[in-house]
Design goal:
Anterior gradient protein 2 homolog isoform X1; mainly alpha; 45% helix; signal; three-stranded mixed β-sheet; transmembrane helix
Length: 208
């Protein structure tokens, strides 16, 4: 019976302890053949000590053994138009960045409670080509009207998208497909919007 317990204890110690502790226990076991209970208590104490070593004083797991990963938080300025893109907060900031980076501005006027704005936002955010090309612009999406009336050439409706080049010229010539809302885009107009984005970049290269 003694050798049965020894075999069991040896297996446990080999799994949970280092070689030095393992050898020490074997020596103790050979000198304590008549006291199996004490041997069991010793094993439990050793295992309990090893378990505590993997935790810190406040009870959390050792960060070296359990690395925590933090998901990337979406940008609040994107408002859902592309969380991985860099957005400016104000029109003035967008103008400054456009001048210093020589990138055109893409301004999206929208409202959170507008179903047309929400529908266009969904398509814009999920369109891989648009998202990739958008990184070439200084981006601004706003839910209010600015003091610059040139940003509303044919009225203050939403959603509407206008482009401004680094010379602060409103690209009134880059329009959508609707004659009564020249700068409006519907979800099905994503290919046209993508084409107009390319046009804004091409005009920048040829005219500046």
């Amino acid at each position: 019976m003694f050798y049965y317990y020894c075999s069991f204890l040896v297996a446990l110690l080999f799994k949970y302890t280092q070689t030095s502790i393992f050898v020490l226990f074997c020596s103790l076991a050979l000198t304590m053949q008549k006291n199996i209970v004490n041997i069991l208590i010793l094993v439990l104490a050793v295992l309990n000590t090893l378990a505590k070593e993997t935790t810190t004083k406040d009870g959390r797991k050792d960060p070296k053994e359990h690395k925590e990963t933090h998901p990337k938080l979406p940008q609040t300025l994107s408002r859902g138009w592309g969380d991985q893109l860099i957005w400016t907060q104000t029109y003035e900031e967008a103008l400054f960045k456009s001048r210093t980076s020589n990138k055109p501005i893409m301004i999206i006027h929208h409202l959170e409670e507008c179903p047309h704005s929400q529908a266009l936002k969904k398509v814009f955010a999920e369109h891989k080509e648009i998202q990739k090309l958008a990184s070439s612009f200084v981006l601004l999406n706003i839910i209010y009207e600015t003091s610059d009336k040139h940003l509303a050439p044919d009225g203050q409706y939403v959603p509407r998208i206008v482009f401004v080049d680094p010379s602060l010229t409103i690209r009134a010539d880059i329009t959508g497909r609707y004659s009564n809302r020249l700068y409006a885009y519907e979800p099905q107009d994503a290919p046209l919007l993508y084409s107009n984005m390319q046009k804004a970049l091409n005009l920048l290269k040829t005219e500046l």
